[in-house]
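Re: weekly structure request thread

Next one in the queue (146 aa):
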Amino acid sequence: MRAVSGGEVAGMLVAVFWAILVSFLAVALVRLAQTLKATTKLVADVTDQAVPLLADASAAVRSAQTQIDRVDAIASDVQEVTSNASALSTTVASTFGGPLVKVAAFGYGVRRALAGRKADAPVKEPRRTVIVGRTVPVARRKNRGK
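Done, posted below.
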């Protein structure tokens, strides 16, 4: 047997540690490669699913915009109908309002006159109102004495 020198033992230890280090690095690189493959597959799957979802979202937004345009048209039509109804109401009120008030006043006057002509109805004396600080007109003062 041959005697082994200290340098040879140190070289053997460095070679063993170097082999262990390379083995650990190889295992780490293999796992890293597997992780990258899984990540690549995941990104590809997400892309495959995201594209149809984005197309559906785009179609939904277009549909919503169409519906908003329709609602806007309906709202403008309702506003126009409201203004027309307001104008019609004003026209009817101005056309029939005055004559109807006159007819109602005439009817009230006729009823009042007929009610005053009844023989059994007591004659009401006119009410006199005193307003402080006002004088009675001259024509009314002359009629008081008679």
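The first helix runs from residue 6 to 116. The CA atoms of residues 41 and 142 lie 118 Å apart.
Next request, please.
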